[in-house]
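Tokens as discussed.
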């Protein structure tokens, strides 16, 4: 009898261990556990038979059955550990990530605003705050507006100086030109103001594209200028200097800037001055602000009465000042871009580096050029 019982226990063990080995997941293993060690399981049933045995048999079989139960419990635990590890490995294998793939990005943080566009927005925000309108004129301009109306007569050397791109002449007229500066917007806007009776007084800027047949490290055939014009009954050079100083301090986000006027010549202003801004050298780079160097950032002067007359304005009653500056140069100085040509090469890597996030609209209240940290973090 006891030999039978031992044999039975041995067979049961072999059977259950085989079943444990055969399982491939936690659910199957749990079924084997319930079928053996559970209340109605085979091992439990075997243990229950101890109750009907004689004391002798019980003494013999008790340890045997208990040992069987412990062995099965151990085998199940070991198998469970093995299955859990396998399941984890499978999950890890399935969830592997290619760290070299780009992060899923939000399209609104993908694009970049070109530094020239950014600076134009900044200029407009600053001058709007000072009460200036923003005027525009055509890129393809007549020789009248580009030259004659600005007191640059046909034989004048300034026409040659400008390295003008001429378009093919129409039969019935002069060749059109690609405007060589933003100054023609002065006369156009004043004429329009006269016609609409919206001025004088005038107070506007005109940022835009300009063209000259010139190309090297610091010149590109297309570049950008900002023109400024103020015309009123008592406008004087003090107003000009104050306007430029206020603008430059705001633009470069400095409390203190210094400019200096150097006598110069432009046909459309009298007197004419070159505008120099105080700066210092940091290695190769010019840094605006304090220092013992001066860099030229534009031209300016009191509007020549001839120009006012070309716009139909009474030059005995009105006078004004004008200025012109290179926008690309301002952008290079402010944002540290060393090579002008890169501005127009449409290299996405350059644009990612020097460009601005579209949602950061420059404004005087929120900061002209502050890229908010939150947005930088979201951007990729
Ligand atoms: N138009 C000039 C240029 O392109 C710049 C300039 C100088 C503009 C003096 C002005 C001015 O309005 O007053 O070189």
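Sequence:
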């Amino acid at each position: 009898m006891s030999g039978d019982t031992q044999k039975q226990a041995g067979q049961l063990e072999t059977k259950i261990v085989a079943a444990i080995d055969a399982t491939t997941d936690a659910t199957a293993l749990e079924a084997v556990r319930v079928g053996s060690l559970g209340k109605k399981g085979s091992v439990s049933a075997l243990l229950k038979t101890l109750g009907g045995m004689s004391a002798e048999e019980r003494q013999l079989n008790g340890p045997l059955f208990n040992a069987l139960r412990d062995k099965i419990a151990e085998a199940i635990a070991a198998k469970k550990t093995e299955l859990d590890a396998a399941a984890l490995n499978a999950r890890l294998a399935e969830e592997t990530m290619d760290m070299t793939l780009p992060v899923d990005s939000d399209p609104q943080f993908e694009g970049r605003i070109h530094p020239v566009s950014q600076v134009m927005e900044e200029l407009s925000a600053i001058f709007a705050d000072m009460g200036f309108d923003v005027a525009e004129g055509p890129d393809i301009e007549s020789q009248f507006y580009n030259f004659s109306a600005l007191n640059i007569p046909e034989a004048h050397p300034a026409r040659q100086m400008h390295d003008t791109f001429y378009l093919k002449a129409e039969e019935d007229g002069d060749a059109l030109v690609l405007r060589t500066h933003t100054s023609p917007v002065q006369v156009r806007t004043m004429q329009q103001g006269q016609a609409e009776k919206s001025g004088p007084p005038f107070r506007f800027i005109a940022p835009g594209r300009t063209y000259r047949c010139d190309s090297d490290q610091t010149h590109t055939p297309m570049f950008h200028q900002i023109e400024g014009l103020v015309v009123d009954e008592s406008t004087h050079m003090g107003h000009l200097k104050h306007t430029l100083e206020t603008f430059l301090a705001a633009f470069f986000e400095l409390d203190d800037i210094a400019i200096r006027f150097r006598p110069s010549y432009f046909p459309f202003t009298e007197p004419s001055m070159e505008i120099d801004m105080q700066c210092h050298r940091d290695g190769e780079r010019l840094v605006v602000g304090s220092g013992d160097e001066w860099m030229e950032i534009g031209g300016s002067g009191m509007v020549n009465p001839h120009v006012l007359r070309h716009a139909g304005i009474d030059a005995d009653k009105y006078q004004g000042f004008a200025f012109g500056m290179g926008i690309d140069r301002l952008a290079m100085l402010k944002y540290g871009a060393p090579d002008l040509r890169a501005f127009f090469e449409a290299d996405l890597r350059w644009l990612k580096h020097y460009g601005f996030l579209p949602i950061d609209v420059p404004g005087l209240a929120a900061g002209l050029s502050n890229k908010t940290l939150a947005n930088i973090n979201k951007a990729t």
